[in-house]
Specification:
By secondary structure, this protein is α+β, with helices and mostly antiparallel strands. Helices cover about 25% and strands about 25% of the residues. The protein contains 10 helices and 18 strands.
């Protein structure tokens, strides 16, 4: 498979459920003597992963060497990231079967599949969810990458392309996920191999989840600062601790009514199963923001029997509305299921722009584009149905599926793209990625040339960068007329985290 080219250029711009299902108190598993024991104990006590059953004599099992299923993955990610409805509005409560016909709405994992579907955690494409199928490493990488995006969690990292021998056939989005989990340390390969098709064990999943928690957690560097958390969201805190010398952290104030402590766990730095005196480690807490307001979260670190002044940690938690009164994006879900065509679309809705006329025009544009694509899709639907019926061919329902990804939203610029996937009964469908870049002061759409100073040779610089990248791996790209011919006047692009992303599909 040839790669879709993705180029990143740094620019100086001129213009769910709140209750976890993990068995927090059942962390002493009969099969817990494992290389991942400290992570297994931590994810259980934090309420992020369940045990799998009990032995005949009543001891709890974690099954660390069992492969994690896609259903279990959905539950773990929902618990870890606090996946919920966010700013999406539904006419009726969505069911798992609305998204995947092979998911029973009464299954234990159905609510978690719904939350993952709403937050676009699993890539679109398959009609079925396959809940019992083991999750592969690339599926886990993509789901984690998408979970960070869904919750708008920004993670500082050095943008580097990992040197891996077995990722050449990955799609661009899959490769983007590999880059993210590799550069953040969440998941890495061994000996130059990522092994994207390998399955993950439950022990490996526990270790991966704790790395995610470490990335998301506030720590000593956030002392005496203010953290903003949306209502309903999950957030973490982790602090250095050493219970082997009898020191303990105690939450002394600031959680009544505004935030709630939903779990805590100590994880030793040493990978052994038994903490060594003086070894130390980290204490983790999982909190949920319950309602708007301000909470002064206070903790004390001391030996309970000593009268000396304890070490203290304090951070102000400001719980904000789900939709900020400032400039923001929410999502509207458009879902219509007919006998021969299904529309499943998430569209952005811009809020808070001072010039209401510009805001209405931008929001109307996405709806108009969706309607035009649906109209084109259905133009030959009657002929398709009649032809297949006359020839006794199976009729495969048409599908229009769209999701969007936000790049930048500030007072001057809105930059995002929408992927429109259409299926018209053939062997596979097609995806049309449409960029939307607006000057929010004027409401005018922006071309690539509009974000550079007049006279700046941006085409030459970008073309040179792309050509140099292709030259390093020529076998991965189409040659000649089918290959790279230079950027166009209508070149697709968006801006994310201060970087220009130019893409070719």
């Amino acid at each position: 498979m040839k790669k879709t080219m993705l180029v990143l250029l740094a620019l100086s711009m001129l213009m769910l459920p709140g209750t976890a299902v993990g068995q927090g108190s059942l962390s002493n598993f009969a099969d817990g003597n494992h290389w991942a024991s400290r992570d297994i104990k931590a994810v259980s006590e934090l309420g992020l992963m369940n045990g799998t059953g009990t032995t005949p004599d009543g001891q709890h099992l974690f099954s660390p060497q069992s492969q994690i299923s896609r259903a279990q993955l959905a539950a773990v990610l929902t618990n870890t990231f606090g996946l919920d409805y966010g700013t999406i509005y539904f006419v009726k409560e969505p069911l798992a079967s609305d998204y995947y016909p092979d998911v029973d709405d009464k299954a234990w994992y159905a609510p978690y599949v719904v939350m993952c579907a709403i937050n676009q955690v699993f890539p679109a494409g398959d009609v079925n969810f396959y809940p019992d199928r083991p999750a592969t490493r690339i599926e886990v990488a993509q789901a984690i990458d998408r979970s960070f995006t869904a919750k708008s969690i920004s993670v500082p990292m050095i943008l580097m392309m990992p040197m891996l021998h077995d990722t050449g056939n990955l799609a661009q989005e899959e490769m983007n996920a590999v880059v993210f989990v590799n550069n953040t340390g969440i998941m890495r390969g061994n000996d130059g191999y990522f092994r994207p098709g390998d399955n993950l064990t439950r022990a490996e999943m526990a270790a991966v989840i704790m790395r995610c928690v470490e990335l998301m957690a506030a720590n000593e560097t956030h002392g005496d600062q203010e953290l903003q958390v949306p209502v309903g969201s999950i957030f973490y805190l982790d602090l250095a601790s050493n219970p082997t010398n009898s020191h303990t952290w105690t939450v002394t104030g600031g959680i009544d009514g505004i935030i709630k402590n939903t779990g805590s766990a100590y994880r030793p730095d040493d990978a052994g199963t038994v903490p060594v005196a003086g070894g130390g480690g980290r204490q983790f807490w999982r909190f949920q923001a319950l309602r708007e307001g301000s909470a002064d979260l206070q903790l004390a670190y001391a030996r309970p029997w000593e009268s000396v002044q304890p070490q203290r940690f304090e951070v102000k938690i400001l719980v904000t509305p789900t939709i900020s009164p400032a400039l923001s994006l929410s999502t509207i879900a458009v879902r219509n299921e007919g006998q021969y065509i299904t529309v499943d679309s998430y569209l952005p809705v811009l809020h808070g722009l001072a010039e209401e006329g510009i805001q209405v025009r931008i929001n109307t544009g996405w709806v108009t584009d969706l309607e035009e694509i649906e109209s084109l899709l259905t133009a030959d639907l009657d002929d398709y149905i009649r032809y297949n019926q006359e020839n006794d061919f199976p009729i495969r329902p048409y599908l229009l599926f769209s999701r969007y990804q936000t790049g930048t939203l500030n007072q001057n610029l809105l930059s995002l793209y929408v992927d429109y996937y259409t299926f018209t009964g053939g062997a596979h469908g097609s995806t049309d990625r449409r960029p939307y870049n607006f000057d929010l002061q004027t409401g005018q759409p922006l071309k690539l040339a509009d974000i550079f100073l007049p006279g700046y040779d941006f085409p030459g610089i970008i073309n040179q960068e792309i050509s140099a990248r292709i030259a390093t791996e020529p076998d991965n790209y189409f040659p000649g007329e089918m290959g790279f011919q230079g950027i166009r006047d209508d070149q697709g692009f968006y801006v994310k985290d201060g970087q220009l992303v130019v893409y070719f599909a």
